[in-house]
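sorry for the late reply, my laptop died twice this morning and i had to redo everyting from scratch. anyway the thing you sent over, i finally got around to it. pasting the sequence first so we're on the same page, its 200 residues, then the predicted structure underneath. double check i copied it right bc i was rushing
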Amino acid sequence: MTDFADIRDHIAAHHGEQTEASEAFGELTLTVGRAHLLNLIAFLRDDPICRFNMLIDLCGVDYPSRARRFEVVYHFLSMAHNTRIRVKCTTDETTPVMSVVSLFPNADWYEREAFDMYGIVFDQHPDLRRILTDYGFEGYPLRKDFPLTGFVEVRYDEERKEVIYEPVVLQQEFRNFDFLSPWEGAKYILPGDEKSEAAE
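ok and here's the structure:
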């Protein structure tokens, strides 16, 4: 079995100029530019020393304060070495990231989810369309600047036999919950307690 340090050094020898490596919690993280993403992932999969032949997850992360606000994060597993590796690639709202579906077919729905939730565009994806939200949905729900309540809600109307959109109506005002145990007791007067104190 190949040692983790050997894998790290091997990747650095072949892709050290295109990647920035860091380690945390016993896992290696590689940050790579969009231009070198496919070459790096193909190398991680096909190289006989690496053998990261399982894509575990692909997700988006939003950092609105950055010029390239999105990170696309890939998690790979090498069954041969029982080792995980993380690959990150940054992009903005308009610049596409190359799809890895040609290398890992299971990335299809992961990339569609990142597109649906963040608006990250994947170039050469075979069927890039929304997967979790409705067809007419506007916006990207996991972006940090997306409104918490939204503006419309969707429901199926049995009488009209169709999906309808309505403005969001909150049925009650926002409440603060203290989540205290009943045995701890609240630090304020609960409604009705003022009567018991008056009786004392």
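Residues 4-15 form the longest helix (12 residues).
thats about all i looked at so far, will dig more tmrw
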